[in-house]
Amino acid sequence: MAQVCWYFQIHQPWRLKPYSVFDVGRDDAYFDIPEEYDFANSRVLRKVADKSYRPMLQLLWQLLQDHPSFTFTLSLSGVVLEQFQEFAPDLIALLQDIVATGRVEILGETYYHSLASIFDPEEFAVQVQMHSDLVAELFGVSPRVFRNTELIFSNDVARQVADLGFEAILTEGADHVLHGRTPTRLYRSVGEEALPILLKHYQLSDDVAFRFSQQSWAAWPLRAETYTHWLTAPFGADDIINLFMDFETFGEHQWEDTGIFSFFEHVTRWIEHTEQARFVTPSQVLMAHTPQDVFETAWPISWADVDRDLTAWLGNAFQNDTTQKIYAVKEALFATGDDRLIENWRRLQTSDHFYYMCTKWFADGDVHAYFSPYGSPYNAYVNYSTVLADFFGRVPLSSAEEDQVHQEPILYEKESQTQTEEDGGTISVVAPSLVQ
Amino acid sequence: MQKPIFMIGWEFPPHNSGGLGVACAGLTRGLASLGHQIVFTLPQSMPAGVSHQSMSFVHADGQKMKMIHVNSFLQPYLQKQRTWEKQFENHVQQYYSDMVEEAEKYGDTVSELAGEHEHQVIHAHDWMSIPAGIKSKQKSGRPLVVHIHSTEYDRSGGFRPQSNIADIEYRGMDAADRVVTVSHYTKRMLEQYYSIPSEKIDVVHNGIDPNPDFHQQVLTEYLQDRPLIVFVGRLTIQKGPEYFLSVAKEVIALSPRAVFVLAGHGDMYQSLLVSAAEQGLSGSVLFAGFLRGKEKTQLFRRANVFVMPSVSEPFGIVALEAALERTPVVVSKTSGVSEVLPHAVPIDFWDVHKMRDAIVDLISDPATHAQHVAAGLNHANALTWDKAAREIDQVYRRVVGA
Q1: Does B311 lie in the same domain as B335?
Q2: Sequence-distant (≥ 6) Cβ neighbours of residue B358 within 8 angstroms
Q3: Residues B132, B260: one domain?
Q4: CB–CB of B223 and A393 under 8 A?
Q5: Residue B214 within a domain
Q6: Are B253 and A406 in contact (CB < 8 Å)?
Q7: Phi, psi (5° rounding) for residue A419?
Q8: CATH number at residue B315
Q9: Is residue B43 part of a domain?
Q10: Could you confirm whether A172 is annotated as catalytic?
């Protein structure tokens, strides 16, 4: 009987307000976007709550009631939980009811949905702890399994996560790391830690997350019966089918009128009635399986774009320069002991700010634009850079630190990837370290 | 002697994006106050079937002129971003061939209007007005003054000047009875690149209206305690914005808290952003977009230094605007405005080190700063549009033989 592991990611960034040169030195409320803007954080949150969070959570709650063996997994960034508390507190109550069933697993992640695992392991550990604390406070549970921002993973990330005491990690079932192996087994990281790894089945996940409403897709319209067949027919008792996707798939990326809610409900009921599959959470997978094979990559992977790497956030000069600058001021910043300044610093680390600056497919009109409050990656960069001018103005830097901040960025591009060693079917690559 | 003047332009405030519109407004006001009756034609996109539309235009000081909007698609500047060079090049060629055709069409309508409006002198500004100037002269037989505010060699910064545009400029100057330039710098270019005889050219420096708003309150409490160095102009090869980035990099190495702001739009916007990030200038070099009115004042008044690193700038009124806001200016040698601001250190646009030293001097030495503010004000205040209008009046007298 195949095991189906649904994991849904809930995240909204604190978006930046339109920030002008004339605000520099006068306004550090970077995230207080006036309500008249479409992309005011409050408005986006309420809109997505109406279209997706509330109806889908209610559906999940109902399915938990109806089917005693139904289970699923959630991960919520700290910054989205802050926004729930501020703009839609009923969602916190609904989530509390859901978690209180004891049948839903909550994953650990960074509070600020940041790239800290790549730049600053110490800061990474702090943000993970902040997130665990918030989850414990709101839901009374402690995350045991980890998912890094955008499923970013590398050998180095796995080691950091193991050091923090997590029992497993989720990531993308990237072909170039799997080398023909199936993503439906439990893997482990390289080295002594041997952290168990659950891999996203991107084909079956993206059938729902991306292709569901694509009329050009051969399988459109996808029926629950067909999809259930795909989930069960090719798989046996040893297979774990990890369906990892944004929670907003339901109602926001795929609107209600595509039939996505009823699709999900029917898939769930079909699986509940079949003997060929059952629902599991990552912790249940860990109890039933022992990882066999190593999943190893020195070069970080993620679930983003066709590249499945970091180039969605660190693929051009805008992104490289702004990320490297923000992490360069840490020491002087902490010396101020100024909590507001430190909180702003962390909110400025949220990966979405850098995602908006992505120019990969800009000329062709890009999916990144769908998620962006800006008209273009150029505007996103200009706004962030102007905010940085204010932020740096508030941090007293020594002259050595000034030099550090004003350095030219290390350009972190796909082309600089170099293969070094081939060893038993896995290829190790050496990545330039961005850790300062 | 007051003469009816038939003046042909292509931009006018508030719908202007460059210095030509400002100059046309200043000159027509000055000429009107000398008693000249002016008919001013201006291209404007209007509904199909409409040929033109007349209105009475009143300057701020109450002087009047007749303004005729002529239906036309003439667009003063390239709108497209400079992206892939090949694509951009094709776009440039397309743009200019469309604009040449539009300038000829504009000339047909304008010359008919020249037949309907009594005038003694025809005064045409820059290449877009030149076909209209030549055709009007053929129609009315009146003398033609061609006023050069900018040539194709300036605008292209030496990067693929369009020969068909340069050709129109040559034909205009050849057909003209007198040629007026905004600087000696431009006069030399006309002699050198177009072989226009020196004695046919009069230099009339642009003016600037004394700033009546200086005491107006604007926000200046931003970027406190941080040196602010500004660039105000189109982000295009002519204006040398990439040299502004290079000098920013140099100055920041010495004065890390300095902030550099570029205000303006243009085809180099995106490539400048990339270049700023590649040089590690995020958070230190900021892009403010196109600023006008109060926001522009706000920028100048707070700025410690204004830099105009133009590759080739026939005049550069914006440097005078900065001087009137008591901002010291650093301008390239290859600009007309450097002729009227003799206190400013002459600098080659490419000489980033010399530019850096001038900026560092101005942001670190209050005495130097104060001297430059005082000298800039003196020189700028001496340059009025009334003065420029009186000089143009002399040119008119000469062409009508009075």
Answers
A1: yes
A2: B330, B345, B347
A3: no
A4: yes
A5: no
A6: yes
A7: -90, 135
A8: 3.40.50.2000
A9: yes
A10: no
B217 within some domain: no
Residue B213 lies in a domain: no
Each residue's pLDDT tens digit, A184-217: 999 999 999 899 999 999 999 999 999 999 999 9
Q: Do A393 and B256 touch (CB under 8 A)?
A: no
The predicted model scores a pTM of 0.90
User: Looking at CA atoms only, how far is residue B322 from chain A in angstroms?
Assistant: 18
One domain, residues B262 and B196: no
Alpha-helix runs per DSSP H in A140-217? 155-163, 175-178, 202-209
Please answer whether residues B184 and B339 qualify as being in contact, where contact means their C-beta atoms are separated by less than 8 angstroms: yes
A2-288 maps to CATH 3.20.110.20: yes
Judge: A24–B280 Cβ closer than 8 Å, yes or no: no
User: Do the Cβ atoms of B194 and B173 come closer than 8 Å?
Assistant: yes
Predicted confidence pLDDT, tens digits, chain B (402 residues): 577 999 999 988 877 666 788 899 999 999 999 999 999 999 988 888 888 998 888 888 888 899 999 998 886 655 555 555 555 666 666 666 788 999 999 999 999 999 999 999 999 999 999 999 999 999 999 999 999 999 999 988 777 788 999 999 999 999 999 999 999 999 999 999 999 999 999 999 999 987 766 667 888 899 989 999 999 999 999 999 999 999 999 999 999 999 999 999 999 999 999 999 999 999 999 999 999 888 999 999 999 999 999 999 999 999 999 999 999 999 999 999 999 999 988 899 999 999 999 999 999 999 999 999 999 999 999 999 999 999 999 999 999 986
B24 and B156 in a single domain? The answer is yes
Of A317, A393, A406, the CB nearest to B277: A317
Residue B201 sits in the same domain as residue B315: no
Q: Is A21 in contact with B223 (Cβ distance < 8 A)?
A: yes
Please give the single-letter amino acid code of residue A9. Q
Among A16, A21, A323, pick the best mutation site for testing chain B contact (most B Cβ within 10 A): A21
Task: Tell me, yes or no, whether B112 and B91 share the same domain.
Answer: yes
Q: How many folded domains does chain B comprise?
A: 2
Q: Is the peptide bond before B161 cis (omega within 30 degrees of 0)?
A: no
Query: Residue B298 is part of which domain span?
Result: 228-382
Is residue B234 domain-shared with residue B190, that is, in the same domain? Answer: no
List all residues 6 or more positions away from A31 whose beta carbon is below 8 Å from its beta carbon.
Answer: A14, A15, A16, A17, A41, A347
Chain B residue numbers with beta carbons less than 8 Å from the beta carbon of A385 are 276-277, 282-283, 285-287
Q: Give the residue numbers in A contacting B (CB under 8 Å), as ranges.
A: 20-26, 316-318, 320-322, 325, 363, 378, 381-382, 384-386, 388-389, 391-393, 397, 399, 402-403, 405-409, 411
Q: What pLDDT digit, counting tens, does each position of A132-145 carry?
A: 999 999 999 999 99
Q: Which of A109, A150, A172, A248 is catalytic?
A: A150
> Which amino acid makes up residue B266?
G
Report the sign of the C-alpha dihedral through residues A59, A64, A67, A71, in that order: positive
| Structural tokens at position B13 | 């405030």
Nearest CB among A22, A321, A363 relative to B219 is that of A22
* CA dist B252 → A402, A406, B306 (Å): 9, 8, 16
Does residue B171 share a domain with residue B27?
yes
Cβ–Cβ gap A21/B224 under 8 Å: no
